[in-house]
Amino acid sequence: MSSRDFLDEGRVAQKRRTRQALLDAALRLLKRGEEPSLESIAREADVSRATAYRYFPRIESLLNVLPLAGLVADPEEILGAVDGGDPVGGALATQRYFYELAAKNEKAFRRLIHATLDEALRQEDEKDYEPLRGSYRLRTFDTALNSLRGRVAEEEIEKLRIALVVLSGVEALIAVKDVVGVDSQVGFESLGWAARILVESVCSNSGT
């Protein structure tokens, strides 16, 4: 029986509460920078290991659906101080927020990277590959760049959005620290410089 079938049979409400308790426990462990395993999550949630395995057969299956809402603000909050018609300001505010969030919770985000890389290796067929992370950033950059719609081709906006996502978050932080070997703040100055040039270039080419 799949975990989805298990959730939809029998005492559904109680099962959903238990599942949420496991997710909440995993988030608490990540916030503390602790190694998340099904055993440690079960202990934190005060359920048996066997119960945890019924809901999530592998640690990756839990981490891949982990709601990061406890860590990530809504787009409206992130962009609250930015003029809605300012795509440059919105993009830079979004980039800074997700980069600083990753730096502040570096251990937690590195754990998530580890889990999603393992899961990606299991998706052997590239045609069937499904993105495992990043929806919060994508949604916020969509909001930040919304004022460009109707004035800039959707293809250009999509290219810009992809580039900005790459320049933000934990992946950018890892590249700065592990590949380039510089301090996170020094690295962010270059990332912010690159993001500004990209957005201003798109705006300039479109006459906005």
Automatic annotation (TrEMBL):
<keyword id="KW-0238">DNA-binding</keyword>
<dbReference type="Pfam" id="PF00440">
    <property type="entry name" value="TetR_N"/>
</dbReference>
<dbReference type="InterPro" id="IPR009057">
    <property type="entry name" value="Homeodomain-like_sf"/>
</dbReference>
<feature type="DNA-binding region" description="H-T-H motif">
    <location>
        <begin position="37"/>
        <end position="56"/>
    </location>
</feature>
<protein>
    <submittedName>
        <fullName>TetR/AcrR family transcriptional regulator</fullName>
    </submittedName>
</protein>
<feature type="domain" description="HTH tetR-type">
    <location>
        <begin position="16"/>
        <end position="74"/>
    </location>
</feature>
<dbReference type="GO" id="GO:0003677">
    <property type="term" value="F:DNA binding"/>
</dbReference>
<dbReference type="InterPro" id="IPR001647">
    <property type="entry name" value="HTH_TetR"/>
</dbReference>
